[in-house]
């Protein structure tokens, strides 16, 4: 068990640059929150596998955030509704809707 945990930490620290780990974490969170039933999700997943980021951090964060994303869905729904119904932004949203 300890050997497995040690191997996990070695894999997470494979790229020593902290920026690569931060990029992997941020992109994993982004992909974890995007719905997985569309082609964009798969396109982003494959694209970022070829970018220089910490891949274990990317994949682990994506899996963990995906597991808990359903709990945050009502919060994001009410937040999105609140933003879309703001009176000061109505004209901006109207302009965006009228774009061909």
How would you explain this protein's 3D organization?
This protein has 100 residues and is mainly alpha-helical. The chain has one domain (2-98). It has 5 helices and no strands. The chain has helices at 2-12, 18-33, 39-49, 55-84, 90-98. Helix 2 (18-33) crosses helix 4 (55-84). The radius of gyration is 18 Å and the shape is elongated. The chain starts with a helix and ends with a helix. The model has no long low-confidence stretch (mean pLDDT 87).
Shape field: elongated
Low-confidence stretches: none
Rg, alpha carbons? 18 Å
Average per-residue pLDDT, rounded, comes to: 87
Q: Any idea how many domains?
A: 1
> How many strand units?
0
Computed structural class: mainly alpha
Described by its quaternary structure, the protein is single chain
Through-space gap between termini: 58 Å
Strand content: under 5%
Number of H- or I-type helical stretches: 5
Order of helices and strands: HHHHH
Helix content: over 70%
Protein topology:
Blueprint: H1 2-12, H2 18-33, H3 39-49, H4 55-84, H5 90-98
Helix pairs in contact: 2-4
Write a compact overview of the structure shown.
The chain has 5 helices and no strands. With 100 residues, the protein is mostly helical.
Question: Main attributes?
Answer:
single chain, 100 residues, mainly alpha, elongated, 77% helix
């Amino acid at each position: 068990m300890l050997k497995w945990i040690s191997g996990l930490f070695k894999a997470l620290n494979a790229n020593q640059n902290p920026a690569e780990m931060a990029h992997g974490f941020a992109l994993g969170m982004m992909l974890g929150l995007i719905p997985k039933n569309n082609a964009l999700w798969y396109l982003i997943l494959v694209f970022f596998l070829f970018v220089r980021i910490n891949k274990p951090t990317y994949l682990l964060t994506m899996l963990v955030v995906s597991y808990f994303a359903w709990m945050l869905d009502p919060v994001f729904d009410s937040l999105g509704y609140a933003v879309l119904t703001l009176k000061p932004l109505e004209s901006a949203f109207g302009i965006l809707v009228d774009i061909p």
